[in-house]
UniProtKB/TrEMBL annotation:
Belongs to the pyridoxal phosphate-binding protein YggS/PROSC family. Pyridoxal 5'-phosphate (PLP)-binding protein, which is involved in PLP homeostasis. Residues 11-229 form the Alanine racemase N-terminal domain. Keywords: Pyridoxal phosphate. InterPro entries: Ala_racemase_N, PLP-binding_barrel, PyrdxlP_homeostasis. The keyword DNA repair does not apply. The modification N6-(pyridoxal phosphate)lysine is found at K35. GO terms for molecular function: pyridoxal phosphate binding. Its cofactor is pyridoxal 5'-phosphate. It holds the Pfam family Ala_racemase_N. This is Pyridoxal phosphate homeostasis protein.
Length: 230
């Protein structure tokens, strides 16, 4: 099947999972992960009305999206992969959100570079909830320290939290990962009621139905949309 058929099927599955959970289908956004897929695939998805995309690597995002932002005003790109401080300046002009904010030093660098170019940038704080190999804040205390630092980051807008569940067939472990992020969201909302923690980016092609059951507002899906990686 082509990208259009894949998109239609994934959107139907997202809507069905939301309804089963007693939620409105519109409460869950699809972020199409286009890493390792060519610009032609992104264009095809755009032609089908998919405007929200995610990329893992700065260089690939530059090559693929630099010529598309002006052509498609509704296009929104999120960076979802690990971000090095020395690449923040390069990625800021391309993205509307950095989902992989995982340390205080990176937050301060994002603020510095956003101030230089006069841009406000949305961020999601990535929390480590799975196995040791995954990135993200290791604990709530380090996460909370960064959130406190937002007071000194006027160009950074908090939008919520992100995580990656462990890659396992053990559904209980996956569900526990998502529940940990939801609990962190609730705690953050109590501590900082003036900040926006409404976005929960969790769930990928293999586990997005569980993520939606546990409160995800954005699922990051690549393979099910674009097919196997090139």
């Amino acid at each position: 099947m082509g990208i259009k058929e894949n998109l239609d099927r994934v959107l139907e599955e997202i809507a069905a999972a939301a309804r089963i959970s007693g939620r409105d289908a519109e409460s869950v956004k699809l972020l199409a992960v286009s890493k390792f897929h060519p610009q032609e695939a992104v264009r095809e998805a755009l032609s089908c009305g998919q405007f929200l995309f995610g990329e893992n690597r700065v260089q690939e995002a530059e090559l693929k999206f630099s010529g598309l932002n002006g052509e498609f005003p509704r296009l929104r790109l999120h960076l979802i992969g690990t971000l090095q401080r020395n690449k923040v300046k390069r990625i800021l002009p391309l993205v509307s959100c950095i989902q992989s904010l995982d340390r205080l030093e990176l937050l301060l660098e994002i603020e510095k570079r956003a101030a230089e170019c006069g841009k406000e940038i949305s961020v999601l704080f990535e929390l480590h909830t799975g196995e040791e190999s995954k990135s993200g804040y290791a604990d709530l205390s380090s996460l909370f320290a960064s959130i406190d630092a937002l007071e000194f980051c006027p160009h950074v807008r908090c939008r919520g939290l992100m995580t990656m569940a462990p890659f396992t067939e053990d559904e209980s472990a996956v569900r526990a990962s998502f529940q940990k992020l939801r609990a962190a969201q609730e705690e953050c909302g109590k501590r900082w009621p003036a900040l926006d923690f409404s976005e929960l980016s969790m769930g990928m092609s293999s586990d997005f139905r569980i993520a939606i059951e546990e409160g995800s507002t954005m699922v990051r899906i690549g393979t099910a949309v674009f097919g196997a990686r090139a």
